[in-house]
Amino acid sequence: MNTYKNPIIFADYSDPDVTRAGDGYYLTASSFNYTPGLPVLFSRDLINWKIVSYAVSSLGDEFKTPRHSEGIWAPSIRYHDDMFYIYYGMPDEGLFVVRGRFEKNISDDDSKKGLIHNFGIDLKVPGAEKIYWDKPVCVLKGKGYIDPCPFFDDDGRVYLIHGYAKSRIGFNSVLGVIELDSKGLTAASEDRFLFKGFCVNETMKEIEDAVFKNMVTATPDEKKAPCVTIEGPKVYKRGTFYYILSPAGGVRRGWQLALRSENIQGPYECRVVMHQGSSIINGPHQGALISDDENADFFLHFQDLGAYGRICHLQPVTWQDGWPVIGENKDGIGEPVEESASPITAYDGDENATAYDTSGDIQWLGNYDTEYFEVIDDKNVISKDMADLLHEKSSYLGNSGTRKLKLQALNNQGKSPVIWKSPNVITRKLDRRSFTVDVTLDISQMQTGDRSGAVFIGGEYFYLECRKTDINEWEVFSGKSFSEDGAVQETSVRMKGALHSDNEARLKIRIVTKDKGGDSEFVNVDECRPESTFSYAIYDNEEPDMEVIEESFDPVDHTWVGAKIGMYAISEYSRGGYVVVDDYQWK
Question: Which residues, 6+ apart, have CB-to-CB distance to 349 below 8 Å?
Fold first, then answer.
């Protein structure tokens, strides 16, 4: 019997959702302020995943300066009538949907009418079907609407069930519902409350209008107030019952609920169906119920691991008295498992397949623009296309190949730009507990006033960079962020012996990160925190010994986003020179 081990994706895919389409499964997740947004991952077995597309390339002009932890929250993905639907919330803008179609589902009529769009990004993955994405559509405008999930009912009616963000609208712990038009693109009814989660005891008795009178002060407790902070609903139908699977209790220490009713409009009864229990997996919740080829059910969800982000686990699902039990059944409530029987044979029969292929995992800190970069080959420009940047022959991905990344030094802030507010920072998620990153930059084309380097960025950040201080002079600085009067600032220190004046100068940066809690990936957030050290060398043709930065950096997550490794080129002027990523190795 084939088995798999959790976590299946050790990378920050917050609020994951999954749908079945064609011969495989498609996963999407929150992308917040990072672009391209709405990553789409593909798998044939629910275990081995690879990024094949991004459904949204831009978040709008207002994200040209990064709006950290805003942007795209908690999407839901469904495949219905030969069409992908991804619904997502932007807490300050409203609820949106983006639709996509496989290339094989594009008709000649569509082609003649010019209906083929690709507002997302196809990563040109061999063996994966191309998806054309339409432009996103706002379904319901307004602040505070989040976490939408559609349900296409048997009678043709379409519903959208969602949550509310207290930070924008003044309350949470409530699920709402609107009916959509038959195409699922426009609200066809007023929003109304579907389920109030302010429950004060085991009998699920509600306090009338507690949301508005601030009468409930219950802290998250799955027995006394099991539905407090209910959010992230996912809607399904099994037999005569509609089920809403929702997390509650908060991200880091919460649990998973199931609501059940024979009418989609309610009323709903509720039960806790998975919690941490005696396991070491904190906050096991929010994800997707999905069936394999043998009609066995599984639940793919996240676990908050702080600086590492929200990593993904897969749990077997059984049914008891008409209720799902997620994970190992312990007196009717599930607990997360470390290992379980595989849904189907490993992807392509490859016993050595990795659970998560990181090669498409590249995003910019804010709205990206083609002026940020070029893909070059022996200094000849190949393209300014993200898909080409993410190509398997790109050396930036740590692959063998001649394609390299050229970063243009830009400034969107005026005087003294900081990394935190620069959209042209290119990032990758952490995908293992301990790792080494080696970056070599050709800095010979930097102009006076330019700075370029590598950053370890979370809620705070540490960077190591080269600055062009004069026509033929470069200096290396280390620095870190701090907050002052609500604004992020930077402080830096010039490194001893960093001055160099060779036109063929290279800067090599090494980031070594080790986790304090050991080697196992099946861990609790309390046991898991990375600590990094930086080192550098500036050289011509021969590489000297690396100079080690004495100060180590212990990153933290930023609100709901894990830490990332980034690279950048920034200028004191609106536009400066450029750097080329000569080599990039992640191991």
Answer: none
Tokens of 246: 């929702």
Structure tokens at 105: 């589902």
d(C-alpha 252, C-alpha 456), whole Å:
23
Can you name the CATH fold of 362-586?
Answer: Jelly Rolls (2.60.120)
If you count them, how many residues does the chain have? Answer: 587
Low-confidence ranges of the chain (pLDDT < 50): 200-217, 346-349, 351-352
Cα gap 222→264, rounded to integer Å: 24
Instruction: Report the sign of the C-alpha dihedral through residues 86, 90, 95, 98, in that order.
Output: negative
Pairing relationship of beta strands 356-357 and 49-56 according to DSSP bridges: parallel
Domains 3-357 and 362-586 alike in fold: no
- At the second CATH level, the architecture of 3-357 is 5 Propeller (2.115)
pLDDT at 201: 42
The sign of the CA dihedral 346, 347, 350, 356 is negative
Q: Which residues pair with 214 in a beta bridge?
A: none
Lookup result for tokens 């942007």:
71
pLDDT at 215: 38
Does the pTM of the predicted model rise above 0.90? yes
pLDDT at 378: 74
Residue 82 pLDDT:
94
Domain edges within the chain: 3-357, 362-586
Encode 227-238: b = buried (16+ Cβ within 10 Å), e = exposed.
bbbbbbbbbbee
